[in-house]
Design brief:
alpha/beta, TIM Barrel, eight-stranded parallel beta barrel, four-stranded antiparallel beta sheet, 13 strands, disordered N terminus, binds magnesium ion
Length: about 375
């Protein structure tokens, strides 16, 4: 290797590529509708996802995933444009692949379907890279810690107050200690009911466990402020994405007008949107999700920016089995979300999905992501 490097350094000489193996031989995206039986609810709730399989000429295969937004557009973009573009290129040079895809397909910095597609492909490439180097992805990315705090998103809008309390009590009994519930009942027009639900949950779990609330972009400034002020007595760890459009300027104002920490960023599809949140002082916690922001490659850049602002990252938007590798990789990773639906979808479509134990999840030592697909389940829930 040394001789080769010395030779490559001579003027006019081109560096030899490392062995040409692990060339991408195929990229295939499929859409799946996976039903999850939720305790206390009569009907199953269905989650849609786009699954990506990247094969290489040496037989190493990587698996990636993104969520439901614009899923058929994402699938078609991957199969018809990214797949032929990537064929024959090295699967290991993840930074080069990301940058080429960006310059070729997204030179005007749009997000949306492009961000979801590149996320799923990038995740699959990192899975391949880990399998090739025989290391788990979280360690290849940085390896800040092997065990990551895990929080449970249990509080779906489908539950009434009593069901919320019963659901959270089940997790408390299991030893979980960090919980998130959705607010913005009636599209954000019923703040008193939101507050009553938060109060009921806090009284059920006692003072010690962490409790977060998530507005999913559904409040106006006035309504968000009303909710934030009224839940101040219930010791809320963060109020996630309270405002229309994740408006960075208004989030910064809201932050100044209440004592509840503000978080945002789970569906922001680029480092530039995260930069805007940081530059405005809009958040106490930044929430990049590797399945939407542009995969591990882009999420690492967001974590680096957040680190420079002395801000922790803690994902929202679910898909814990992919985001735990990112949270474990970076030293400003705070906690990973186990959203009930996407957590259970992961357990259906993968054979070996790590579970949270008493508020923490321990990362795999398996190479790559350590997630072996359940082919039967993927076939059963395939959507054409
Ligand atoms: Mg959220």
């Amino acid at each position: 290797m040394l001789a080769q490097n010395a030779k490559a350094a001579e003027p006019g000489m081109r560096a030899e590529r490392s062995p040409a193996g692990l060339r991408i031989s195929s990229v295939k995206a499929t859409v799946h509708n996976v039903p999850v039986k939720v305790p206390l609810l009569e009907r199953a709730l269905t989650t849609q996802l786009v699954f990506v399989e990247v094969r290489t000429d040496e037989g190493v295969t990587g698996y990636g995933l993104t969520g439901n937004l614009q899923s058929f557009g994402v699938r078609e973009f991957i199969n018809r444009q990214l797949a032929p573009f990537l064929k024959g290129k090295s699967a290991l040079d993840t930074e080069a692949r990301w940058q080429e895809m960006f310059l070729t397909f997204n030179p005007r910095y749009q997000t949306g379907a492009w961000s979801s597609a590149v996320s799923a492909v990038d995740i699959a490439l990192w899975d391949i890279k880990g399998k090739h180097y025989q290391e788990p992805v979280w360690r290849l990315l940085g390896g800040a810690k092997k065990t990551v705090p895990a929080y449970i998103t249990f509080g779906l809008l489908e539950f009434d107050r009593d069901q919320l309390v019963e659901m959270v009590r089940r997790f408390v009994t299991e030893g979980q200690d960090k919980f998130k519930m959705v607010v913005a009942i009636d599209n954000g027009e019923n703040p008193l009911e939101d507050v009553a639900r938060v109060k009921a949950v806090r009284e059920a779990i006692g003072e010690k466990p962490d409790l977060m609330i998530d507005g999913n972009y559904l409040f106006s400034m006035n309504r968000a402020l009303e909710v934030a002020k009224r839940v101040e007595p219930y010791n809320i760890t963060w109020f996630e994405e309270p405002l229309y459009g994740n408006d960075a300027r208004l989030l910064a104002q809201l932050r100044q007008r209440c004592s509840v920490p503000i978080s945002a960023g789970q569906n922001e599809g680029s480092r530039f949107r995260h930069l805007e949140l940081l530059q405005h002082g809009a958040v106490d916690i930044l929430q990049p999700n590797v399945c939407y922001v542009g995969g591990y490659t882009e999420a690492m850049k967001v974590a680096g920016m957040a680190h420079a602002f002395n801000i922790l990252v803690a994902d929202g938007g679910g898909w814990p089995h992919h985001n735990m590798h990112f949270q474990a990789a970076v030293s400003n990773g705070w906690r990973v979300e186990f959203h009930y639906l996407m957590w259970k979808v992961g357990e259906i479509i993968y054979k070996s999905a790590p579970e949270p134990q008493k508020g923490f999840v321990t990362l795999t030592e398996e190479p790559g992501l350590g997630l072996e697909p359940n082919r039967e389940a993927l076939a059963e829930f395939l959507e054409n």
